[in-house]
What we know:
- It is built from one helix and ten strands; from the N terminus they run H-E-E-E-E-E-E-E-E-E-E.
- By secondary structure, it is mainly beta.
- It has an eight-stranded antiparallel barrel with strand order 1-2-3-4-5-6-7-10.
- The radius of gyration is 23 Å and the shape is elongated.
- It starts with a helix and ends with a strand.
Amino acid sequence: MKTFLRFSLLVLVITTSLGARAQQGTHFLQGTSLFDYPAGIGSTTKTLQMQLSLGTFHTANQAKIWHVTMGFADTGKEQNMLKNQTWQLGIGKAQEWYKTIFGSLRLYAGVLGHLGYNYADKVQQSSSTGAFTESRSHTFTVSLGGNAGLYYGLHKHWALTLQLVQVNAATLASEFVRNDYTEGSNTYTTHLTQIRYGIRPTLTFASGIGIRYVW
C-alpha cells in the first residue's frame, strides 16, 4: 500500500510539473519528421518532410507556432517515367489547441496557413517514338489546412508529438513550367504559366513524429 502511495505521489508530482510548463509565456522549439503517402497503397511515391517549429503557449491549452518546412518527394521509376522528383520549401503559421486525455497524454488539433515553393523535375520517355520529355516546374502556393495528433510530456522540458491526420482546405498555386522535348538530335522547348486553385477539402494520413523542448 505504501509503495502504491509513493508511486501515485511521484506520478502526481511529474504530471503537475509537466502541466506547469505549458502555461502563458512558455516557449518551445520542435523538430518533426513527416512521412506522407497520399497516392495510396501500392504507390512508389516516397515523401519526407523535415519541419522546424518555434512556438509560444498563450494559455496552457493554446499555442501559436511558426513552422519552416523542407521536403523531398520521389515517385521512383514507373511506366515510361524515368524521373519524377520534387523539392519543397515553405513557411507557415499555426494555431494549436490541446485537450488532456489523462496524465501527460494530450490530444491536439490545429489550423495552419502556409506559403510554399516546389521545384519539380520529371523525365518521361514515349513508348511509341522513344522521344524524351523533360519537364521542370516552379510552383508557388498559398494554402490553408489543419492537422491533429497526440502530445505526450516526457519531462518538464521534453515532449513527443505524433501527427495522425492532415487536412488541406484550400489552395492557390501559380506554376511556371518548361518542357524540353528531345527526339534524335532535335530539341523543342515550350513554356507554360498557369494559376490553379482548389477549395475542396482533402484528407491525407500524413504521419510524423516530433520532439519538443520547452522552456
